[in-house]
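Example 3.2
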Amino acid sequence: MIKISNRTLPVVALLLSLCPAAHVAAQDDDDEECRERAGFFDRAEDEEDLNRELWEYVKGTPYAGALSYVARAQARAREARVAEAVLPTGWRIAPAGRQVELGRLPYEAVPFAGRLVVLNTGYYSREPQEVSVVNPASGSVEKTVRLNSMFPSATEGPGGDLYVSGGFDSKVYRLDHQFNVAREYAVAGYAAGLARVDGRRLAVLYLAGKDEKGGYVSGRLALLDAETGKVEAEAAAGYFPYSVRYAGGKLYVAALGENSVRVFDGSLKHLTDLKVGRRPREMCADGRRLYVVNTDSDELSVIDTSRDRVVTRFSATSGAATATRRSRSSAAPSRRTTTRSPSASSRSTTSTPTARSASSATASRRAATPRPSSNGWGTPPTRGATGATPSGWCRR
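Structure, written as tokens:
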């Protein structure tokens, strides 16, 4: 039997009165957290928590069991992987060469220091995004660099180092030849495409700039001094400028939200606008020609940089080329192509069978308005949106 004296009785009573209050306070905190998550239920950082809660609610077993089950299922899937895949259209694709496991959404790859640097710009929940350094000879990932936020753009720039766009974090990362972050540059917007201008300066696009209050405004083009770390000049770059290239002493900006390419001189004076296809993203230069990948109209626009004119358009769906003149456009004759039928092994001469399906897929991709994302680069309408693959046409 426990004896309680008259002196200790008030203390026990006080403790008993506080316990319900503490329980109520903890319950209030849980309710507040639930209300906050209900208002922002699609946050990437809540992915793991939501998976755990769903599993334990439905299965009534520890979440660790789910993780081991997923690991076993992934192992079985790797063992059963075949070298040939059937696409939704009925066509078959057989990957060539070796396959290298990378990070999530490997959206851009650039050669640097004898290695292939891959920017993995997918969602990583609470973890930073990843840069995979691949040895082309061995086909192995030698190093993984983690950066908090990235936009799929990187270029070799001043000092011979690699510059990587920092996306939402409004930064540009500078990596040395050992793939260490040697320096970070702060910029005044959502960092997008990059291009080397000369031995000291780097052109930096802001997918969306920021006003005095930190709110997003229209895109900007900036010249960054890589030695001082200061922005020398800025200019308006239109609605959602995606990529920038330096060619013939001029800067060309693909304005994704305006279906045009803006042309600037070396001091960022605006020279002209060139209308191209829908949703221009990537560009690459080859002498006097600049090739623009239009991902929503599935076509390639060719610009003569000596005259700043669109001279040719190539369709990825029909294979037809259109020559562009100043006064009018004349379409080239329809081209017949030799294709393999999805349902038969015999070859026949016919029009490309995927034009209708490609055009209907294109129509379904037009609707959404682009906006920056808090985790990565925010491709309109969503991260990882489909369309013509920029790297498939533009090779550096």
